[in-house]
Amino acid sequence: MSQKQYGMVIDLKRCIGCHTCAMACKVSNNLPNDIWWNRILTDGGPSMDTARGTYQHFTMDYYPLSCQHCDNPACVKVCPVGATYKDEETGIVRQDYDKCIGCRMCMAACPYTGVRSFNWEEPKYSIDFPVGDQDVPTHQKHVVEKCTFCYQRLAKGEEPACMESCPAQARHFGDLNDPASDVAKLIAEREHKQLLPDRGTNPSIYYLV
Predict the structure, then answer these.
(1) SS (H, E, C) the chain
(2) pLDDT digit string, tens, across residues 10-20
(3) In the structure, what pLDDT confidence band is assigned to residue 53 with cuts at 50, 70 and 90?
(4) Is CATH 3.40.50.150 what the domain over 6-208 is classified as, yes or no?
(5) What are the boundaries of each domain within the chain?
(6) Among residues of the chain, what percentage have pLDDT more than 70?
(7) Given this model, what pLDDT does residue 2 score?
C-alpha cells in the first residue's frame, strides 16, 4: 500500500454534464485529435444528453468517466514490460510511454471500457503548436494513453485540470488515506458508490449519489 492514495470524489447531484472537465483535460495535457482521457456519459436515453422515460417522468444523470486509478489495478498486473505501473508515492496508476510496446494488454485487462486510448498513428493535432502544460510528456505512436490525474500539475502543487475547471464544483481531489482530507470526509459523510466493485480493483474514483 502506498503512503498516499490520491483519488477523486465526484458529486453526481452537482454534475451538469457540461463537458468542461473533458475539455480542460484535453487542453492541459495537449491530447491528440480524437483522444479523450475524460468523458461524460449520459445515464438516460440512447444518445448523449437524452433522458429516459416519458413526459413528466423524465430522468437523466451524468457520469464522468476516466481512468479509475485503482488501488488494485488489473492493468498493472498484465503489463509485460512495466510500462503501466502504480506510483509508490501517490498511488496513481501511470504510463511510461518510452517503455510501452503497444501490446494493449492493459486495455484488455481494464474492466472500465474506454478509459484508455491507443495511438495507432503518429499523433495529429488541430493546431500546429502544443497547448496546455509545458511539461506534459510527448505523445507517441503505438503507445497507450490515459488519465494521469495531471501528474505534471501535482508535481508543482497544483490540482488536476478537470477539478480546477469544474463550474459546478462537482469534483474533489485528495489523499483517500488521509482522514482529514476533503475526499475522505465526503466518503465518510455521503452515500457513494464505485464502478464495478465486484471486479476487486478498488477504484479511487468515488461517485456521490
Answers:
(1) CCCCCEEEEEECCCCCCCCHHHHHHHHHCCCCCCCCCCEEEEECCCCCCCCECCCCCCECEEEEECCCCCCCCHHHHHCCCCCEEECCCCCCEEECCCCCCCCCHHHHHCCCCCCEEECCCCCCCCCCCCCCCCCCCCCCCCCEEECCCCHHHHCCCCCCHHHHHCCCCCEEEEECCCCCCHHHHHHHHCCEECCCHHHCCCCCEEEEC
(2) 999 999 999 99
(3) confident
(4) no
(5) 6-208
(6) 99
(7) 53
